[in-house]
């Protein structure tokens, strides 16, 4: 009888050790993802080095679901560049082309006007109320590359949250039941 009790305790000990190993592994993966994101922020100079195009406003150049890679440099922004900017009062950044840059000689302030390639008018109706121009602090980065369609995963997960929870649940179940 003593051997059976020792065997059960040994199995429980192994199960606990296995569960702790999985928790530590998951924590390590999460930490590494965060470190990679922070390194990308430092390397690109952009607060958000990767964004997903969420609308058709930049077609035909960029389509909904494309992933854009951003970089922020000290070079002056020029007309024709594609930038990602945030507007006060809006949570989601916007990807559009710079159509006009105006530098005020008296203050040195740079005013920027944007427009989606597929839009009929400039972005002034999208800016905060009473705002006619973007300033440098609104710009999150300049598009330097893209991956077509890869961002659809993000769009689907956002628009259909049940799929996100099912995927997370399935991955969690797979992680818990894996032997290695």
UniProtKB/TrEMBL annotation:
InterPro entries: LexA/Signal_pep-like_sf, Peptidase_S24_S26A/B/C, Peptidase_S26, Peptidase_S26B. Its EC number is 3.4.21.89. It is a single-pass type II membrane protein. The keyword Hydrolase applies. It catalyses: Cleavage of hydrophobic, N-terminal signal or leader sequences from secreted and periplasmic proteins. One of its GO terms (cellular component) is signal peptidase complex. Keywords: Hydrolase, Membrane, Protease, Signal-anchor, Transmembrane, Transmembrane helix. GO terms for molecular function: serine-type endopeptidase activity; signal peptidase activity. GO terms for biological process: signal peptide processing. Its main location: endoplasmic reticulum. It is an enzyme of class 3 (hydrolase). Residues 42-144 form the Peptidase S24/S26A/S26B/S26C domain. It is found in: Endoplasmic reticulum membrane. Belongs to the peptidase S26B family. Catalytic component of the signal peptidase complex (SPC) which catalyzes the cleavage of N-terminal signal sequences from nascent proteins as they are translocated into the lumen of the endoplasmic reticulum. Specifically cleaves N-terminal signal peptides that contain a hydrophobic alpha-helix (h-region) shorter than 18-20 amino acids. NCBIfam families: sigpep_I_arch. This is Signal peptidase complex catalytic subunit SEC11. The lineage of its organism: Eukaryota, Viridiplantae, Streptophyta, Embryophyta, Tracheophyta. The gene is LOC103720620.
């Amino acid at each position: 009888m003593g051997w059976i009790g020792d065997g059960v305790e040994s199995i429980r000990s192994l199960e606990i050790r296995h569960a702790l190993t999985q928790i530590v592994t998951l924590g390590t993966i999460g930490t590494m993802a965060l470190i990679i994101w922070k390194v990308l922020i430092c390397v690109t100079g952009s607060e958000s080095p990767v964004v997903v195009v969420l609308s058709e406003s930049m077609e035909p150049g960029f389509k909904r679901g494309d992933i854009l890679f951003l970089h922020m440099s000290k070079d002056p922004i020029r007309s024709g560049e594609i930038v990602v900017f945030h507007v006060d009062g809006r949570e989601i950044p916007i990807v559009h082309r710079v159509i006009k840059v105006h530098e005020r000689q008296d203050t040195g302030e740079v005013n920027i006007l944007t427009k989606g390639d597929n839009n009929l008018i400039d972005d002034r109706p999208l800016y905060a109320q009473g705002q006619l121009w973007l300033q440098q602090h609104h710009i999150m980065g300049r598009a330097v590359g893209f991956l077509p369609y890869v961002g659809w995963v993000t769009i689907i997960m956002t628009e259909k949250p049940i799929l996100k929870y099912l995927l997370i649940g399935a991955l969690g179940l797979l992680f818990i039941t894996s032997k290695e």
